[in-house]
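Support request from a user on the community tier.

User writes: "When I paste my structure tokens into the form, the page sometimes reloads and wipes my input. The last time it worked, I copied everything first. Here is what I submitted, just in case something in the input itself triggers the reload:"
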């Protein structure tokens, strides 16, 4: 067997292990009974470890090296192997026991987060989180090279975005948007606020989910919308990308936007060139680019006046009783209502980046050894008050409302970066397409095709910065985000 045959055989094995781990973890998050979640985690970890065992072996690594040095392979195979080689070169610096230990700890921390949400007793979760932070610091110490500490983590999530980049990005957002936010918060509400108390039948909400999936071209041939506390998307391969949402009678719009968000992620995965499926070039180019796609549909399309004009008759028809007293304006201004409230995922577009900045600052302090896990809650509340003038009354609506920290750090800032990238993409898309007209017609197909051509098809075969450059002709530029937000909210509030 030559080196390439060996590689292909190992790939088959790796794909199968990854497939098994993915399916089990999706099951664990959606339908697995509570009492069996630990067991479910154990089994999915078992497969992840089998995968890591092969990938981190000398045999696999040197075989990659052999192919790259001695064989003439096609361009795509070479790209796949090179990408794996670079990743493995990093992983191999970390002791395998540490990686395995971290897999187990992450699984345990996730379960303890869910349990803490119910009991409001976060002590076990915090103890796990403390271990996780220490373990992460240790892991990062093996990877320090071009970057140190928290920058290693940020670079892992987003190639070459460091604290210096995020600091200047966030400073720009603060200086440009804070004055606007202050003004907006003083303005009277433009909608009938009783809409907040309307209860929406869950079965009808499910019909709306179906309708939205249809409009976005996300069919049950390739996907599913299951239910979880924290909605997410799991891209198994180019034929199977699963999403979740959360239903609550009081939160129709939360479900609507959660579906648009996750289906945005799903479309990205589904439109990647299938030759990359289940390889190192599959999946999105980066976390931020992935978030740019979900937030594009959630906000730039979903919360636009034009799309609401399209959706309004559908909503009125579906929720005849519930919405009988509410006009188009009530809905449009309600879903774009700017307010200081606790929950990040419920935040309007204007306050959203500040929810992210708070989490970024906490992570930075943690990894720069300025605070410890036990200080997170106080520090979070203090920062929350600085930005929003309100203080969370418990950790469920405060520092630990999100599941993210139970599996690691460095992800939050990519949400804000993703939002900014989506505005830059929209600016350039509008040069090719009449996005407003298409949104008003509910005809999203040309928009989805544009994204396929300019962003999705490449998968992870290009880096984030390369995709942005290809799609827009320029580098990442946060000015489009600032302009988009200013323009939108000045219009809404007549400022
Ligand atoms: Zn997302």
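"...and here is what came back when it finally went through:"
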């Amino acid at each position: 067997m030559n080196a390439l045959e060996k590689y292909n055989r190992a790939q088959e094995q790796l794909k199968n292990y990854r497939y098994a781990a993915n399916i089990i973890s999706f099951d664990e998050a959606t339908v697995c009974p509570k009492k069996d979640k630990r067991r479910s985690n154990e089994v999915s970890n078992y497969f992840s470890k089998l995968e890591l065992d092969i990938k981190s072996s000398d045999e696999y690594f040197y075989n990659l090296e052999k192919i790259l040095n001695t064989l003439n392979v096609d361009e795509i195979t070479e790209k796949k192997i090179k990408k794996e080689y670079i990743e493995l070169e990093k992983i191999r610096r970390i002791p395998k026991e540490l990686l395995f230990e971290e897999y187990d700890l992450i699984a345990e921390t996730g379960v303890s987060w869910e349990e803490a949400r119910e009991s409001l007793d976060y002590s076990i979760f915090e103890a796990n989180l403390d271990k996780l932070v220490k373990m992460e610091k240790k892991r990062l110490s093996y990877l320090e090279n071009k970057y140190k500490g928290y920058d290693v983590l940020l670079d892992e999530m987003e190639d070459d975005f460091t604290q210096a980049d995020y600091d200047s990005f966030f400073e720009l957002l603060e200086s440009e948007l804070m004055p606007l936010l202050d003004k907006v918060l003083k303005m009277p509400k433009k909608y009938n606020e009783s809409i907040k108390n309307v209860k929406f039948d869950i079965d009808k909400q499910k019909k709306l989910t179906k309708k939205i999936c249809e409009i976005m071209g996300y069919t049950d041939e390739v996907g599913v919308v299951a239910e979880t506390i924290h909605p997410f998307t799991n891209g198994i391969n180019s034929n199977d990308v699963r999403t979740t949402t959360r239903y609550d009678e009081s939160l129709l719009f939360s479900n609507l936007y959660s579906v648009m968000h996750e289906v945005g992620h799903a479309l990205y995965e589904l439109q990647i060139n299938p030759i990359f499926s289940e390889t190192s070039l599959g999946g999105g180019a980066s976390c931020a680019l992935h978030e740019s796609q979900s937030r594009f549909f959630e906000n730039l399309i979903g919360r636009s006046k034009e799309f609401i004009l399209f959706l309004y008759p559908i909503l009125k028809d579906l929720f005849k009783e519930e919405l009988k007293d509410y006009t188009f304006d009530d809905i449009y201004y309600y879903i774009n209502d700017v307010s200081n409230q606790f929950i990040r995922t419920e935040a309007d577009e204007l306050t959203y980046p500040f929810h992210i900045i708070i989490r970024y600052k906490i992570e930075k302090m943690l990894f720069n050894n300025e605070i410890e896990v036990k200080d997170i809650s106080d520090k979070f509340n203090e920062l929350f008050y600085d930005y929003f003038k309100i203080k969370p009354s418990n950790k469920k609506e405060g520092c630990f409302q999100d599941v993210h920290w139970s599996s690691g750090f460095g992800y939050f800032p990519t949400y804000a970066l993703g939002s900014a990238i989506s505005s830059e993409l929209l600016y350039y898309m509008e040069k090719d397409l009449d996005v407003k007209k298409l949104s008003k017609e509910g005809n999203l197909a040309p928009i989805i095709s544009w994204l396929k051509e300019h962003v999705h098809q490449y998968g992870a075969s290009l880096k984030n910065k390369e995709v942005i450059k290809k799609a827009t002709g320029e580098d990442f530029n946060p000015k489009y985000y600032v302009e988009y937000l200013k323009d939108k909210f000045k219009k809404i509030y007549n400022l």
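Agent notes: The reload is a front-end session timeout and is unrelated to the input. Residues 3-30 form the longest helix (28 residues). The mean pLDDT is 96. Escalated to web team.
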